[in-house]
Specification:
136 residues, mainly alpha, two-stranded antiparallel sheet, 4 helices
Length: 136
């Protein structure tokens, strides 16, 4: 992933004049450091293939960052890095497909162990209409 995801961000303290203090909840001006902090945290979450909701929830819970501020920074990152985020969303779809496949594979193993608890390998028997699936 590109280390500097945003070159010169249009999200500046002037563009985002006030916000909540990230730890105390009080309203104050948003600094460049606040924006950079949230951007860096978002980039770390992207390395873990989190979706936007997971990032917002994680930063809200762990770093006490206002969800609307995280969403604003995410939106600006997406606007300035369309190609990256298009590819990233495809990776998220692939990640979800892999998770689903693994879940189905685990279920298949459970079903096979239930059908043949002895640990005997299940091998298909050609032209065997009424044979037990646990013998070979």
């Amino acid at each position: 992933m590109d280390r500097a995801l945003v070159k010169n961000s249009a999200l500046s303290p002037r563009g985002c004049s006030s916000g909540r203090d990230m730890s105390s909840g009080e309203v104050r001006k948003v600094s460049r450091q606040d924006i950079q902090l949230v951007q860096n945290l978002i980039e770390r979450c992207l390395q873990l293939y989190m979706n936007q909701k997971e990032v917002v929830d994680t930063l809200s819970f762990q770093a006490k960052i206002e969800p609307s501020f995280t969403e604003l920074v995410w939106q600006k990152l997406e606007e300035e890095n369309r190609e990256f985020f298009e590819a990233y969303h495809i990776r998220l779809i692939l990640k979800n497909q892999i998770l689903l496949f693994n879940m189905l594979l685990e279920k298949q193993v459970e079903l096979m162990q239930t059908a043949c608890p002895s640990g005997v390998a299940i091998l298909p028997i050609p032209n065997a209409s009424n044979s037990s699936p646990c013998i070979f």
